[in-house]
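Write out the bound-state structure for phenylalanine.
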Amino acid sequence: MESINALRKSALRRLRSIKHKEELRSFEVEFLGRKKGKLTAVLRRLGSLPHRERMSIGQEANTLRLELLEEINKKKNIFAEHAMQEILSKEAVDITFPPPKRPRGHLHPLTHIRLEAEEIFSSMGFSVIPGGPEVETEYYNFDALNIPSDHPARDLWDTFWISSRSSKVIDQKRKARGRSAFRVPTSKVLLRTHTSSVQVRHMESHQPPIRIIASGKTFRYEATDAKHDTEFIQLECLFVDKNVSVAHLKHTLSAFFQKMFSPKVAIRLRPSYFPFVEPGFEVDMRTAEGEWLEMLGAGMVHQQVLKNAGYIPGHWKGFAFGVGLDRIAMMKYKIPDVRLFRCGDVRFLRQF
Ligand code: PHE
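---
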């Protein structure tokens, strides 16, 4: 009986000082362990006692056992609660904390210029039509524009031709997708060298008055340098109506450049040659700093082109021009090398 009382005292004192789950476990083993537990040893010795003592001592020992088990359980719960509190405070989310900045994408500088140009022409009453296919037929890129295959002017546009096998595949795919094959099936296929390819394409399905712009990628098979790339963006403008003159062309162009750059800029037209216009011009712009820069090709739409579009000969007049948007972007943003636009270097692109 005495040793049980002593055991209770020492056990309860130990329990009070326990601060960790691990200590609690070794306490449990020390007192209640099956093999070497101190209380277990007392219970084991019961058998050697006389009957009456065995009853009273046994009862006492069992009470102690239950008491200890309950205390251990209480402590376990307290420890578990503490552990949970710790997790909760450590992993707490402060919903008032500002979120990390997410990098946002933005438009490419050429897209900015393209949108700006579209805005300007829209404000002048032009419709912005889809840019037309980049993979184009020889017909729309050349023949329809009064440049037959034996015409020396073809040398003006160094062309990426698409091999006849791929041309056939493209033709078949278009057919399979339920689109009509190219209008002129025998036509060879190329990467369009200018957006003028949209002129006859558009006029075939529309009647004058026509006031449209169309922009998109164009390609030239050329050595690249700071001013030339094999790929660039052109914007084509086509205006067809009854009494159209060079004055309309000149006004449209100077209004465009003044809105794009500054009211101070001026333009001048120099005679030039493109088979699809007559007369044809090279257009220069005088910058606010007084420097003349060559900007684009333009002219009055050649009657042969209007005829190729199916219009009654002599009935309509028009002007057209094609302007390189890379060039404009270079001037506006002061970019020294056209190849930067497509180099994929984010250090360049992040500046816009
Ligand atoms: N398509 C010509 C070029 O890329 C430019 C142009 C367009 C000239 C329309 C006259 C009329 O060189």
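---
The two ends are 90 Å apart (CA to CA).
Residues 51-90 form the longest helix (40 residues).
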